[in-house]
Amino acid sequence: MICRYILLIIILINFPGLTYAQSKEEITERIREELESIHLDTALKSVTLQNEEFLENMTDGGGELTGFYKGKNISRIYRSIGISYGVGISEFYYKKNRLIFIREKFNSYVYNDSLGTADYTKLNTTYSAKHYFDNGKLIESNSTGHKITSVDDPDIEQILLDESVEAFNLIQNKILSLTGHEK
User: 36 pLDDT band (50/70/90 cuts)?
Assistant: First the structure.
């Protein structure tokens, strides 16, 4: 019996990660709490980039990229890009400048049969997704609707990470240019 306890102690000492492992549910709950904290933080400053400041190709509805930060830490980035048939929205959330969550949404313009064209005053959410990240890895992803992409078989994790890095770097560079610091 004593040998079992000694063996257990040896295992716990040599593999401390076993005692601190969190389930996916615990991690996503911690992320949800962090998102709430970010939204409630009234001390966050914001900086916004318009259209040509971040879009390689101009779109029909233009775009906006807004970063929310405190000190050297970016907490949230909101990206809105309008195209001819709707508006794509992505929100990137960070803790200590590390990606923890992405929310995506696409709102399509409602087609008006009597006018024979889209009604640009009415939107309908046709895609919504939540992506949870831990240590740079996608751990959970939930979506409803269909995402319109130009890629046939995308590696969604890599695409999301690339978009996050691009948005983060643009906002970070804008903050640095405003504060007189260079990267």
Answer: very high
